[in-house]
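Hey Z.,

So I finally got round to the glutamic acid thing we talked about over coffee. Here's the setup:
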Amino acid sequence: MPIKHVIERLLHSTRQSTPGQAEFYQAVEEVLVSLEPLLASEPKYLHNNVLERLVIPERQIIFRVVWMDDSGKIQTNIGYRVQFNSAIGPYKGGLRFHPSVNLGIVKFLGFEQIFKNSLTGLAIGGAKGGSNFDPKGKSEGEIMRFCQAFMSELAKYVGETKDIPAGDIGVGGREIGYMYGEYKRLTGRFDGVLTGKGLNWGGSLARTEATGYGSVYFAENILNKQGDSLKGKICTVSGAGNVALYTIQKLYEMGATPVTCSDSKGMLYDKDGIDFNTLKTIKEIKRQELSEYLKHYPNARYIPVDAYEKGTNGVWSIPCFAAFPSATQNELNLRDIQTLHHNGCRLVNEGANMPSTPEAIAYMLANRILYGPAKAANAGGVATSQLEMSQNASMQKWSFSEVDTKLHAIMKSIFDLAYATSKEFNEEGNLMLGANIAGFRKVADSMIDQGAV
Ligand code: GLU
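And the result:
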C-alpha cells in the first residue's frame, strides 16, 4: 500500500477510535506526513507497526480531583496523566492547569513530548498531564489544597525512574512545591519525582530560565547558519508566562529588542523594548494584569483582546524581524503569518507547544520564512529538567553557568541534528521535517529493539 494511504488510514482510525481530539489529530498529522520520506526509504518502521503503536499512549490515567474552596464548598476537577511512550526513558513531561485542558489537549502535548524529549539526546520518554482547574482568581490556600488533592492521586503513578512530571501553563514553582510536599507526605520519600523544584530542595539552577533561554539559543543557531544573528533585531514575543519572560531576558542579552508580550486579556507594545524586571514583577511576583505595566511605562501601548483585528492575534500585527510565539497552541494562524511576512518578518521560533496552525506552517515553508519548530526550539526546558534529574540522582548541585553551558550545547546539537536530517532527506533547512524525523527515528528504533510491547 502506498505510504500516503497508510498514513491516511491511520489518521482515519485515530479519529474514529478517539473522537473529539482535534489538537491531537493536528499533532499526529504533522508528524506522520513529515515522516513520509523516511518511511519510503526504511520499510522496517511499517513492518513493525511502529506508527500504529506510537499514536496510542501506553497508559492514560484520568481521575477525579476533589478539594474544598475558601467558602467551604466542595469543588471537583478532572485530572489527567497520559504516559505516552517509554521507549527511550522514563515518562517525562509537564502538567498544565488551565480550564481548556481535556484529554485531547493532554494527548497532543504528550505526543509532542515524545519527539521533543528524543531530540534532546537524553534518556527521557514522553508524557503530559494536568487538569481543567483554573488557577486564576484562586487564593493561595485554594491553590495549595487543589495541588495536594491532585497529587494525592497522581502519587500512585509517578516515581523518579518511572514518571517525572514538571510544570507547564498554570504550573510553576509554587504549584510544584505544594505537589512535592504532598508527595513526600504520602510516600515518605525525598527524591527527584518532580522537576522545576525550588532551589533549596533539589531544584536546578537555570531550570526556570531554560525554556526561554533555549528558545533564543535555537533561534540564534538558525540565524548563524544564514550568516546572520539576533543582534540589533526587533523581535515580537507573545505570552507573559515563564517561557515569554525568559525569552525576553535572553533576547536583550543577544542584543535584540523584544517589543511585545501578551496574556489572555490583551497585549503590550513598547517600541523601546519591554522592561524585563517590570514585567517579571507584574506577572511572576504580584500576579497582576499586564495593563499594570502602563503605570511604569506610560508611553507603552496596551491593546485589549477585543480591539485586535478579528480572527488574528494582535501581537503579530507589530512589525518585527523575528517572532517568538510563546503563549499557547494555535496562537499564530495564516492571517497572522501573512501579516508578519508582509511586515518583513524573517523568522518564527516557537517557544510554546504547537503555536502555529498547519496553514501558517505551510505558508512559512512555501515562502522561505525561517522556522524553528516547537519540538526543537522549546526543548531546552525539558532538557534542563533532565539535568535536574541527573543532579538529584547523583546528589550533586551544579552552578548556574554549568547548567547554562550544557543547555547551550544541547540546543546547538538539536539544531545540528534537525538540520543534518533535513539535508539527508533533500529538504535542506526544513527543520520541521528534520526534527520530526530525527526525533522519531531514535524512539522507533528503540521500540523495535524492545520487541512487541
Ligand atoms: N512543559 C514543558 C514542555 O513542554 C517542560 C516539561 C518538563 O520539564 O518535563 O516541554
